[in-house]
Amino acid sequence: MKQTTILGHSTLNVNRIGLGCMGMSEFYGPFEEEESIKTLHKAIDLGVNFFDTADMYGWGANERLLGKAFKGRWDDLILATKFAVMRGANGEFLGLNGKPEYIRQACDKSLQNLGVEAIDLYYMHRKDPKVEIEEIVGTMADLVKQGKVKYIGLSEVDPETLRRAHAVHPITALQTEYSLWSREPEQELFDVCHELGITFVAYSPLGRGFLTGAINSRADFEAGDFRLNNPRFTDAAIKKNLEFVEVVDRIAQSKGITKAQVALAWILSQNDEITTIPGTRKIHRLEENFGALNVELTENDLAIIEEHLPSVTVGERY
Fold first, then answer.
1. How far apart are CA 264 and CA 211, in angstroms?
2. Number of H-type helices and E-type strands within the chain
3. Interval 9-23 mean pLDDT
4. CA 50 vs CA 20, 22, 70, 278: distances in Å
5. What's the CA dihedral at 229, 318, 209, 23 to 10 degrees?
6. pLDDT single digits (tens) 272-302
7. Which end of the chain has fewer CB atoms within 10 angstroms, the N or the C?
8. For 194-203, what is each residue's pLDDT tens digit?
């Protein structure tokens, strides 16, 4: 399996399995800074070089965490962060903002949080419906000209918006949820990314942990875990969606690997450029996930998955 790829219209050579850092500061229950920093340092030791964060994760805390962990080591790393989701002083969600002045302020704040002079890959996290994509991308392009951002990306946009954005300035990467139970990008986005030379970056590749088999009921969640409010994690949805895990487990047992490794290897098998960013706070999970780069799924494995995978996922993504 090809283990690295050049991100879209860039010179950024990344591991095809990076590390999503969101859960180190929020959303998935209790977390410890010391544990997270150890995991981040272990990631470097393993050879991981692609790290993903956003200004809204911990409303700045996640960027500051990476800034602390990676101080003096940025030359060996590729960092992606995002803007557009506004948070209040107490973490409250205040909506989306794609106005030029806000984008410029958000970029400067991220640079400060991270302690870097330029952001490798700067994403629009979600599109502000009140601002045209041409204006948003035009502002991002100005940040590139100013040397504050090296390359730009988008997250969760439709094919038409992606085309319009790319006409303003080359889009390097499109980040969208994609996994065995979230396959919507296959319908058109993959083709548009291939046509335009944009790398597809899959987030939540393990179905927010569900495809690892670690979640069998709501009792498996810790207090404060945002998945407790997710439609796919009601008791009824979990019971039905466990059919996805059964298919993954069948392949895992036949190959002597873990369910997480099957789910990640399946994503990487879709094409040679697709990249994914599973998140974790724990070193053993990090090692397990990164090990999927050495997994080869056969045509028969892929056929079994395709044949037996449920056609419908119970519950919306959000």
1. 10
2. 10, 12
3. 95
4. 9, 14, 12, 11
5. -80
6. 999 999 999 999 999 999 999 999 999 999 9
7. C
8. 999 999 999 9
Measured in whole angstroms, the distance separating CA 63 from the mean position of its chain's CA atoms is 15
Q: Which of 57, 123, 151, 178 is catalytic?
A: 57
Nearest Cα to Cα of residue 15 among 264, 280, 299, 298: 264
178 is catalytic: no
pLDDT band at 28 (very low <50, low <70, confident <90, very high): low
Domains annotated for the chain, with CATH where assigned, are 4-209+269-294 (3.20.20.100)
Cα–Cα dist 37/45, whole Å:
12
Q: Return the structure tokens found at 103.
A: 């984008």
Question: Is 218:235 a contact under the CB 8 Å cutoff?
Answer: yes
Cα 56 to Cα 124: distance, rounded to the nearest angstrom? 12
Helix, strand or coil, per DSSP, at residue 265: helix
Q: Report the DSSP beta bridge partners of residue 149.
A: 119
- Please provide the DSSP assignment of 98-137 as one string: --HHHHHHHHHHHHHHHT-SSEEEEEE-S--TTS-HHHHH
